[in-house]
Amino acid sequence: MKLDCISKNFGGVKAVSQVSLEIGEGDVLGLIGPNGAGKSTLINLITGLLTPDVGKIFLSNLDITSQKPYQRARLGLARTFQNLRIYPNLSVGQNIEVASISSNYSSRTMNFDLDKIINIFDLEDKIDLASEELSYGHLRRLEIVRALALNPLVLLLDEPAAGMNENETKELSNSLKWVQNNIACAIIVIDHDLKFIMGVCDKITVMNMGEVIASGKPNEISNNKRVKEAYIGH
Ligand code: ADP
Ligand code: MG
Question: Which-ligand-closest: CA of 207?
């Protein structure tokens, strides 16, 4: 997937300003930056909830900039939201099924075993439970499994570790590494937990006030002066 200089203004606020980036199969890209940096807006632009004022978005060389969210989902973009969006009245299994039914509209064939993913994300013995009976950590996992059931080319995770304890975050980290090694997709992950981000991502892009201020490997980012200033202020 490739973003070619996309921007989005809200009134006078430059929420996303001239952002370009590219990721491919097997990449795990971390997207970090202070609150209000434009991270969620960027995901909304990629998935089609918002349309950029300028710039273009490509998926497998296809220009998807004017496609609707459901079309982009069928083409291979799957996401989770910063706030949980589970169907509370459906069982765990039914929440996943909704997505796997949708994936039938996609022309891509499923290249992995969904039961294995359910097992990796520790939902196997919870499949018949009402979703509202799940712990918070498992609800977050369910969202990721549901997104993976769409058979994505790009998986976008908006703060998947938010509200998780240290142990849950560690397990999530391991599960995402399993996805990277076993499923042919790219992952973009936003989170505030830098230890988590540094652990799962090969590359990190840092945003501040709508702009990309740094991009590189985790060790390059942690030593970057502009990044330190954006986080600590001066
Ligand atoms: P982040 O996810 O990095 O915390 P956001 O993308 O949510 O940041 O927000 C970036 C900026 O855009 C903020 O200044 C925010 O107030 C503004 N913003 C986001 N969504 C909207 C919207 N729908 N309408 C108006 N302003 C918005
Ligand atoms: Mg956000």
Answer: 1
